[in-house]
Amino acid sequence: MKGKKTFKFGLVVGLFCFVLYGQVKGQKYELTSGKVTFFSEAPMENITAENTAIKGLFNATGETAFLVPINRFQFEKDLMKEHFNEKYMESGKYPNGTFKGIFSGFDLKKPGIQRVKASGVLTLHNVSQKVEVPGEVQIKGDQLIMDATFTVRLKDYKIKIPQLLWQNIAEEVEVTVHFEFKKIE
Fold it and tell me: Please, are residues 137 and 106 in contact by the beta-carbon 8 Å criterion?
């Protein structure tokens, strides 16, 4: 069973990369290091999780795409991870979160930190929503560093909180991303 899941994940990533590479033109950047963190503040217990298994591409026109394997989020407690994957995100059915969109407000020829906006489609739990996320891009030679923090409302993605656990999970979750890209030839 594990071999099938690994194959399926590899196939999804491969198709994702193929589609994006076919669409992008000009300078291309590949994610070399990335982290997605979420924080849920709730009356009973705050929950934080981190995922570094991100795949992503970016090109000179600002087109970008990211793939986040949901079951790769790491939690402080194993039970939190189990509940997250089985009760909320249903990662067996919906294994990946994705973002596909375009960044605006940057100049690749200008080194330093620039304020940007990402506009596109965020898909979680098999539900796609248009989003706009403000953030920063730092340009250092052939490297791009992207940072952003935004809020995800669970009901927008049909993520249900079981009645017995409503005090354990907030209805809105703060998501922070840090991505480092390197130019590819």
Answer: yes
